[in-house]
């Protein structure tokens, strides 16, 4: 009988040969998921032999990962900010870059009255709106999306985090489903230029939803359509925060000022110090 330790080393080698980075960590994750244990428990069981059923289910995960399916889809969940989110095919996997947007939104929200209202547009798994709601106990959050798979995940995440009383998941195009103007609007719309899609990592290109990535010829198709629609949905002193590609921020700022001439623009950098979040502040 082969030991878990031997299986782990074999899995690590297969990942390394198959071009999967962080092969050691990824091998651990496959076996932690299969055996439903944390890392400490995994290492404590090194000398044990997995059952045939366990070996078979690990093998399925290994093959999926070797085909470059993202680890988060294999595990079925992902940490984002300080919450755990269910993830799956049909919604973008929440990324660390977006945590910067959440942090800034929470900082801004602290200056508003307690009954602040927030809308996250194109919510996917619900990551942004749910992280804000979880950290702002009196906020009311609306999260919209057009796609059934995303809406389904956002609903499940809302329930799972116990936030259903304060977070409404709404189906529809961009801001259209909002029942009223809000204090803060957040959004991570698709912003990748269509011609760049084929250059993305296979994990993204082959598995994550194109409708969450593809922003058209210059990446700003949806962003422009969205910006034009924003003004009637922002309260006085309202703030809009949008994640985008660092190369787009100048063009997007100019466009935002065209639509909201009295607004003030700020730019927030991501963890690698690249311009990542456009902040548009409306006058009182
Ligand atoms: N940051 C994403 C990427 O890795 C793009 C997300 C988006 O288009 N909103 O490609």
Structural description of this entry:
The protein is of the alpha/beta class and 284 residues long. The chain has two domains: 4-67; 77-281, Vaccinia Virus protein VP39 (Rossmann fold). The protein is 40% helix and 19% strand. It contains eleven helices and nine strands. The protein has helices spanning 4-17, 23-35, 39-44, 52-66, 71-75, 96-109, 127-135, 148-160, 202-207, 221-229, 249-259, and strands spanning 77-80, 83-86, 117-121, 140-145, 167-171, 182-187, 234-243, 264-269, 275-281. The strands form two sheets. The chain has a seven-stranded mixed β-sheet, sandwiched between helices. A two-stranded antiparallel sheet has the order 1-2. α7 links the parallel β3 (117-121) and β4 (140-145). α1 packs across α2 (23-35). It is elongated. The N and C termini lie far apart (71 Å). The mean pLDDT is 97. The structure holds glutamine. Residues 95, 97, 188, 190-192, 200, 204, 213 line the site of glutamine (GLN).
């Amino acid at each position: 009988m082969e030991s878990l330790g031997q299986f782990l080393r074999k899995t690590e080698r297969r990942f390394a040969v198959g071009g999967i980075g962080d092969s050691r960590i990824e091998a651990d994750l496959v076996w932690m998921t299969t055996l439903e244990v944390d890392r400490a428990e995994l290492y404590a069981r090194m000398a044990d032999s997995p059952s045939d059923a366990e070996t078979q289910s690990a093998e399925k995960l290994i093959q999926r990962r070797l085909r470059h399916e993202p680890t988060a889809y294999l595990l079925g969940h992902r940490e984002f900010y300080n919450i755990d989110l269910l993830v799956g095919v049909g919604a973008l996997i929440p990324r660390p870059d977006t945590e910067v947007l959440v942090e800034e939104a929470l900082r801004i929200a602290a200056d508003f009255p307690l009954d602040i209202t927030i809308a996250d547009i194109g919510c996917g798994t619900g990551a942004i709106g749910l992280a804000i709601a979880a950290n702002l106990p009196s906020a009311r959050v609306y999260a919209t999306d057009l796609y059934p798979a995303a809406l389904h995940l956002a609903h499940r995440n809302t329930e799972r985090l116990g936030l259903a009383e304060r977070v409404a998941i709404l189906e529809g195009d961009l801001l259209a489903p909002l029942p009223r103007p809000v204090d803060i609007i957040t959004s991570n719309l698709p912003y990748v230029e269509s011609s760049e899609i084929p250059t993305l990592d296979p994990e993204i290109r082959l598995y994550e939803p194109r409708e969450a990535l593809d922003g058209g010829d210059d990446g700003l198709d949806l962003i422009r359509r969205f910006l034009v629609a924003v003004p009637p949905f922002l309260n006085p002193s309202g703030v809009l925060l949008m994640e985008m590609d660092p190369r787009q921020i100048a063009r997007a700022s100019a466009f935002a000022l065209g639509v909201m001439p009295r607004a003030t623009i700020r730019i927030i950098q991501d963890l690698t110090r690249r311009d990542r979040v456009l902040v548009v502040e409306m006058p009182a």
